[in-house]
Design goal:
By secondary structure, the chain is mostly helical. About 65% of the residues lie in helices and about 5% in strands. It has two domains: about 110 residues, no CATH class; about 45 residues, no CATH class. Strands 2-1-3 form a three-stranded mixed sheet, with no helix packed on it.
Amino acid sequence: MFRFDNCYLTLSSDFTPTVQGVWRNNIVGTAMFAVTRKLKALKPIFRAHRQRKGDLSNNVKLTASFLDTAQTLLAQDRLNPILLHLEFCCRMILRLATKIEQHMLHQRAKLAWMKGGDQCSHIFFCKVARRRASKRVFQIMSSTGKHLLISRMSLTSSFPSIGPCWVATNGHGVLT
């Protein structure tokens, strides 16, 4: 699976030209081979971009501490236009960093859900599997108590009143 952190890559100004540059390369081979080669060529570029951005959660903490420092300085001198502008810039940077971090966490949650599913789907599919297993016919017992091993085709021909979909069991795989 090829995945990348689209939260800050797509917001970057050099994202589209970089991808277009790699995608314009002519690679000889089948279409699938060409796509995989192009994706592999993009991987180190995306990795370098991610390393330049650094840890997004740490960036949010760092910008929050810068904003705290700017607000402390502004509390001492409320009329200083430079400190007012500094505080405004710190707020804008914190807002952007928080938005990018939230987008990244949202994407990671989606990936985790795609890999493992959620609790409801797990319960649902376990219940379906249990229900299918309980309705499966493993053996047929005649009225004399003898166990019969019959294929599905001979089952419908032996019991014409029972269609192929109307075979019922008692929950233990025995036709009653």
